[in-house]
From TrEMBL, chains A, B:
Signal peptide: none annotated. InterPro entries: 6-PGluconate_DH-like_C_sf, NAD(P)-bd_dom_sf, PDH_C, PDH_N, Preph/Arog_dehydrog, Prephen_DH. It comes from Polymorphospora rubra. The lineage of its organism: Bacteria, Bacillati, Actinomycetota, Actinomycetes, Micromonosporales. Keywords: Oxidoreductase. Belongs to the prephenate/arogenate dehydrogenase family. Gene3D superfamilies: 6-phosphogluconate dehydrogenase C-terminal like domain (1.10.3660.10), NAD(P)-binding Rossmann-like Domain (3.40.50.720). This is Prephenate dehydrogenase.
Length: 330, 330
C-alpha cells in the first residue's frame, strides 16, 4: 500500500482485517509513525507492517495499491519501475483517464515486468482525512469502480482484483475510464462546484447567513473541503466536468425561464418533477443477483446499466452481478 | 392557531407547553381529529383545544397565527375579518412580500378592528410534514424572522410577538419583508433549484446513479421534497429567486471559465477559495449580547448585520441583541 491517507489507510486496515499480509508506505514520516503505532495496537491476526521505502513495501508483493493524490501518481509509478516491481498495480484516484494515460506513458519501463494495471476508485469519502481517520469498515456496501478497457485490460487481472475488493464488502462496478470520469463529474465533481457557488453567493448578505438552515447546510456541506483537494479533483477531470456542469447549467436555465413565466408556480412544478422523481428513486435498490459470463464486454454493459459485481466464481468463468431493481412508477 | 401542519402544529404545541392558552383549527377534519387526540394525551398544563371553525378559534384570542400555505392565506384573512377578529395577526409563511400585500389589500375590511399585522417566518423545516410530526422543541435556537417596516409596523405589536417567540427559545431576526424575501431566495429557494437540477441531470446515466455518494446525497437531499411545495415556495417568491439564481449562475460561469483555463487546477483553487471560507465560517457564532434601544430602524440594522434579538425588556424600551461574532481570518 503506497500512501496511507484516509483511503489508503482504510484499504490497508480492511485488507489486514481480511487476513491479507499488508505492508504500507507513506512519503510523510509522521504518517508512517502513526500507522506503525496503530499496527502495534491491532489484533495480531490483522496487523500490518510499515516500511521506510516504496522498494521495501513492494519487494515481495503480488499487488501494489497506489493511494496517493493524482499529482503524485507518476512519481510512485516511477518508483515501482525502479524497484523492479513485477506484480499487479491498482490505484484509488478519483479520476481514471489521466491515470491510465500515465500508466500508458510508462509501459516502456514497466513492460515485460508488470503483471498489469487495473485502475480503481472506491466511492467512499469522509470530511475527515489522514491515517488517524482510516476505518477498515469504510468500504462496506460502497461502490468501488474497477476499470476495464476492451483490448487493454487483462480480464484475469480485473477478476483477481474483483475477488479482493468484493471480499471487503464493496460493490465492484465495472466501467471504462472514460465512462467513470463522466459519471463522477456529474455526481461528485459538479456537486462540489454547486456547493462552492452557493456558499460564496450567500456570504455576501449577513442576514442570509443567519436565516440559512437545512437546505443551505446540506447544499453547501462539501464546500468546506480544502480548495486544493477539490481543485485537484475537478481540475484533473476538467474535460468531463466542463460538459457535466454545462448540463446542470442548461437545467437551471429551464428554472430561470419558469421563474419568469406568467404562472411561475405551475411552470416550476413541471420543471421540478423529474428531479424529484430521480432523487426519490435514489439510491438504486439492488435487483435479483444474476450469474453472468466473466467477459469484458458483459461486465462493461453491467456497469453501464448501473449494475455491479458482488462475487467472482472460483473458476473465474462467471461473476454474480446485480442490476438496480426497476423503479415503481408510483 | 389557524392551520395545524408541521409548523402550525409545532407552534401550537410550543405555545401550549410554554403555558399559553391555545386554540387550534385546521380546514382538514382528519388533521383536527389527530390534533384533538394528541391534546388529550398532553400533560394537563400543556393542553390545547381544537375548534370546528376559524370563528370559534379566534373568538376570544389576543393573537391569531396563520399557518397555512401561501395560496390559502387570503381566504383565512377574509375569515378573520368575517369573524370580527380584533387582535394581533402573524403568519409563518416562507415569503413575506406577497403576504404583506394580501394584508394591505384587506386593510379596508380589517381596518379599525385589527390590532395589527406582523409577518413572521420560523426557519425550521423538516422532511416530515403534518401534525403528527409537530414538535414543541422545533424552534429551539432556530431563526424566526419577524418583519418590520418603517412607518407601517406598530413597534408595540412587533415587541409583543418578539416576547412570545423568544419565549419559545428562537432567535428573533428583524427584517423588512423585501430583505427577508431576498435572503431566503439565496439560502433556501435557490438550493432547492440546484438540488433538483443536479438530481435530474445525474438521472440520465445509471452508472452515475450507482457511483453517487456523499456529495450527491447531500447536494440533492431537498430535491425529494414534493414539487408542488417547492414550486409554491419558489414561485411565490419569483421576483427575488430569479436574481438570486442569476447570482449563482454568474459564480458558476466563473467555474466554467476556470475549467477551460490552461491550468484548470490553479484556476479552480482560486475560484473555490471564497466559497470554502464562507462555508467554514457558517453558521455564524453569536457575539456578546448587547442592550439596544427598541426602535424600528435599530432593529432592522441589527437584522441586516446578521444579528437577532434574544429578549425584550419588561418596559419594552430596550431589547437584548446579538450580532455574529467576527470571523477569525485564519
Amino acid at each position: 500500500m503506497i500512501g496511507l491517507g484516509l483511503i489508503g489507510g482504510s484499504v490497508l486496515r480492511a485488507l489486514a482485517a481480511a487476513g491479507h499480509r499488508v505492508l504500507g508506505y507513506d512519503a510523510d514520516p509522521a504518517t508512517r509513525a502513526t500507522a506503525r503505532t496503530a499496527a502495534a495496537k491491532a489484533p495480531p491476526a490483522a496487523r500490518w507492517q510499515v516500511t521506510a521505502t516504496v522498494r521495501d513495501a513492494v519487494a515481495r508483493a503480488d499487488l501494489a495499491v497506489v493511494a496517493v493524490p493524482l499529482p503524485a501518481v507518476a512519481g510512485v509509478l516511477d518508483q515501482l519501475a525502479d524497484a523492479g516491481f513485477s506484480g499487479l498495480v491498482t490505484d484509488v484516484t478519483s479520476v481514471k483517464g489521466p491515470v491510465h494515460q500515465l500508466v500508458g506513458q510508462r509501459l516502456h519501463r514497466l513492460h515485460d515486468r508488470l503483471a498489469g494495471f487495473v485502475g480503481g476508485h472506491p466511492m467512499a469519502g469522509r470530511e475527515t482525512s489522514g491515517f488517524a481517520a482510516a476505518d477498515p469498515e469504510l468500504f462496506a456496501d460502497c461502490s468501488w469502480v474497477l476499470c476495464l478497457e476492451p483490448g487493454v485490460t487483462a480480464l484475469s487481472d480485473w477478476l483477481e482484483l474483483a475477488v479482493l475488493v468484493t471480499g471487503l464488502g464493496a460493490r465492484v462496478v465495472p466501467a471504462t475510464p472514460e465512462e467513470h470520469d463522466r459519471a463522477v463529474a456529474a455526481v461528485s465533481h459538479v456537486p462540489h462546484l454547486l456547493a462552492a457557488a452557493l456558499a460564496a453567493t450567500a456570504a455576501t448578505d449577513p442576514l442570509a447567513g443567519t436565516l440559512a438552515a437545512g437546505s443551505f447546510r446540506d447544499g453547501t456541506r462539501v464546500a468546506a473541503t480544502r480548495p486544493e483537494l477539490v481543485a485537484a479533483m475537478c481540475g484533473g477531470n476538467a474535460a468531463a466536468v466542463g460538459p457535466a456542469l454545462d448540463a446542470v447549467l442548461t437545467e437551471l436555465a429551464g428554472a430561470r425561464t419558469a421563474l419568469a413565466a406568467d404562472d411561475p408556480i405551475a411552470a416550476l412544478r413541471t420543471w421540478l418533477t423529474p428531479g424529484c422523481a430521480a432523487r426519490t428513486a435514489w439510491p438504486p435498490a439492488p435487483g435479483k443477483p444474476l450469474e453472468l459470463p466473466a467477459r469484458v464486454e458483459t461486465l462493461i454493459r453491467l456497469g453501464r446499466a448501473g449494475g455491479w459485481v458482488t462475487a467472482v466464481a472460483d473458476d473465474r468463468r462467471t461473476v454474480t452481478g446485480v442490476r438496480p431493481a426497476p423503479v415503481d412508477p408510483d
